[in-house]
Amino acid sequence: MTRLWGVRPRWRTDVLGDFFCPGCGGDRNYRRQHGRRWLRLLGTPVLPLGPVIGSVQCTSCHGRYGVESLEQPTCVRLGGMLRDAQYTIALALLAAGGTAHRAARDAACAAVRDAGFEDCGEAQVLAALAALSGLGGELYDAHGMAGGLAVELHAVLEPLTPHLAHQGRERLLLQGASIALADGRYLPQEREALAAVGRCLDLPQTRVGALLEAATRTPYQ
Ligand SMILES: [Zn+2]
Q1: Fewest CB atoms within 10 A around its CB: which of 1, 5, 119, 143?
Q2: Is 221 within the bounds of a domain?
Q3: Mind listing the pLDDT tens digit for each residue in 175-198?
Q4: DSSP characters for 43-64?
Q5: Is residue 108 part of a domain?
Q6: Cα(35) to centroid of ligand 1, in Å?
Q7: pLDDT at res. 183
Q8: Domain final residue pick, 17, 52, 71
Q9: Rounded distance from Cα 24 to ligand 1 centre (Å)
């Protein structure tokens, strides 16, 4: 039943897109809208009142959320970020340990395929490493990890970190550790690379140390 008097906003759509809907918990389409409150008589707007804060409406559940809900990546986007993270960590650890050992190359390629790059073989992984070195000279020099690789790790991991639970971040670190351990004990450069991964993933330094020690006793599954 329509009430005699009421105040309800009237919305105008600014932009359409897809987002992770906090209401229905999945990737959905949204309308980003701004609006103005109207005094209504029998449902008909008669007098404009103030503007309302812009909001986002899910086209599936019609729930309305603050525009900050657009900051949460969609499942598709998150999956892509995670894939890129696994790939970059594999490259960083292979670069740190060197490509001379077959076991390390195999472990890095397995991690890359595991991430979802199923057609990516050893040739592609080595070509990607060569391309990274081409950007910033040697990947490792006397001073440790060189700029190009460190920048790449930051660029890929830092946007992902706030969206991953603790276990997810630790898992990424342990995947890196398994590549480092494939050809024997940690080399100083591998430890350094793993420490850099831990920092980008916002894991406490002591936790990184404990996880790396534990990884030497328990083979990565
Ligand atoms: Zn929804």
Answers
A1: 1
A2: no
A3: 999 999 998 899 998 999 999 999
A4: TEEEEEEEEEEEEEEETTT--E
A5: yes
A6: 20
A7: 87
A8: 71
A9: 4
216 Cα to the center of ligand 1, angstroms? 45
Shared domain for 29 and 65, answered yes or no, is: yes
23 Cα to the center of ligand 1, angstroms: 5
Range of the domain at 83: 75-215
CB 153 within 8 A of CB 196: yes
Query: What pLDDT is stored for residue 210 in this prediction?
Result: 96
CA angle centred on 88, ends 145 and 75, rounded to 5° = 145
Identify the weakest region by mean pLDDT among 84-88, 116-120, 168-172: 116-120
Taking a 5 Å cut-off on Cβ, the residues next to ion ligand 1 are: 21, 23-24, 28, 58, 60-61
Q: How far is the C-alpha of 112 from the C-alpha of 84, rounded, in Å?
A: 9
Q: Which residue has the tokens 């609006």?
A: 35
User: For the chain, what is the domain count?
Assistant: 2
Q: What digits encode the pLDDT tens for the residues 119-145?
A: 888 998 888 888 877 654 555 655 556
